[in-house]
Structures are given as structure tokens and as C-alpha cells.
TrEMBL record:
This is DUF2157 domain-containing protein. The chain crosses the membrane at residues 94-114, 120-142, 149-167. It comes from Hymenobacter negativus. Keywords: Membrane, Transmembrane, Transmembrane helix. It comes from the Bacteria.
């Protein structure tokens, strides 16, 4: 039975635990070890609000959008850490996506250059793709650790450019779905980074 625990406070003292069976059947929600309620799959997809003991409202729903599915927990409109709409979670997901692209470029490029793998050389791996992988890695680092939205957007633009250049080729069509999914994750990370920087700017000017 899958189980996820989220926290309502930064000190991680208020725990909300969700557990369910396959396909989100028998979905159960516990608050501080006490059952808060149960939801059917249909109710979970539609979203349901629970009243916490102190009067706060906890929204629970299964969010399903193209390229992303996950639990959305919000307390009075604020996403909980680790849930699908949490900006920090979106940034981490974008970082992982970019580093996956970077890692593949670097590893396959090194294999092509040092191992003289004809297949990899034939589809374009070499010094150029090695440098591209390092650029991806740098952009991912800036995006995650500096919360630089522009770095995520730059990585997304590079991914789109690569996809356009490969249109019509076998490797381009085969990997298009993966590129789209990675691109969605990177875009969500960019918007989350911009949101966090905007929020920080508002706080600093008060």
C-alpha cells in the first residue's frame, strides 16, 4: 500500500499521511496519526476539503495534467512541500530532467569520442554534444541553486532547438514524446523559480 507523508509546517511537526491501494482506491488521510477521512478515486480527482482542528482548510486532490500526475495538498491555498504544485518540488523535478539530458549527452559523447562507437558518431555525438551536455548541467545548477528562471527557460529553448533539428530523422521522432515530457517539467520549474523570486522580492520590499 503506497504511503506519503507531508508536513503542514516548516518544523515538520504537523504530519498528514495519505495511503491508498492500486489506482488510488481506498484512499485514506490521517492527521497526526488520527484518521481524517477517506475518499473514492472519483472524489479524489474532483478534490475534497477537510477541516483541520484549528479551522484551517486542507484541500486534497489527485491532479492529472498532460505530463504530470500527483497529489495536490493545499492548506488555505498554500501547496504543501513535496506535492505536485509545490514550487520547490517543481524546481527539483526540472533540475532532474535537465541533469538527465546533460548526463546522457556527456556519457554518450565520451563513449563516441574515446570508444569510437560508429553508431554514436554517425548520429552526431562528439565534442559538440559534450559541450552541450556541460551547458545543460550549468543551466540546471543555476536554475535549482540560484532559482534562475532564465536558466530553465534557456535549457528549454535548447531542448526545443535540438528537437527541431532532429525532425524528420529516426532518432528525432522516436524521442519526441520524451522531449515533450522533459520540456513540460522544465517549464514548470521555470515558472516556479520565477514565482519564488517574485515572492522573495515582495517580502524584501516590505
Amino acid at each position: 500500500m503506497p504511503t506519503n507523508t507531508f508536513y503542514l509546517d516548516d518544523a515538520r511537526t504537523e504530519a498528514v499521511t495519505a495511503s491508498w491501494n492500486m489506482f488510488f482506491r481506498n484512499f485514506r488521510l490521517d492527521y497526526q496519526g488520527q484518521e481524517l477521512g477517506r475518499l473514492t478515486p472519483a472524489e479524489l480527482k474532483a478534490g475534497h476539503e477537510f477541516a483541520l482542528p484549528d479551522g484551517r482548510r486542507l484541500l486534497v486532490r489527485l491532479q492529472q495534467k498532460f505530463g504530470a500526475q500527483g497529489l495536490d495538498f493545499q492548506v488555505d491555498g498554500r501547496p504543501l512541500g513535496g506535492t505536485i504544485n509545490d514550487p520547490l518540488t517543481q524546481i527539483k523535478t526540472a533540475f532532474v530532467a535537465i541533469m538527465l539530458i546533460a548526463g546522457l549527452n556527456v556519457v554518450l559523447s565520451v563513449m563516441a569520442m574515446l570508444g569510437s562507437v560508429e553508431f554514436l558518431v554517425a548520429i552526431g555525438f562528439g565534442g559538440g554534444t559534450l559541450a552541450e551536455g556541460l551547458v545543460y548541467a550549468g543551466l540546471g545548477w543555476l536554475g535549482k541553486f540560484r532559482r534562475a528562471a532564465w536558466a530553465f527557460y534557456a535549457a528549454l529553448g535548447l531542448l526545443v532547438l535540438d528537437g527541431v533539428m532532429l525532425l524528420g530523422s529516426d532518432q528525432g521522432s522516436a524521442g519526441m514524446v520524451v522531449r515533450v515530457l522533459l520540456g513540460i517539467a522544465i517549464y514548470r520549474g521555470a515558472t516556479a523559480a520565477r514565482q519564488l523570486r517574485t515572492t522573495a522580492g515582495v517580502v524584501n520590499t516590505d
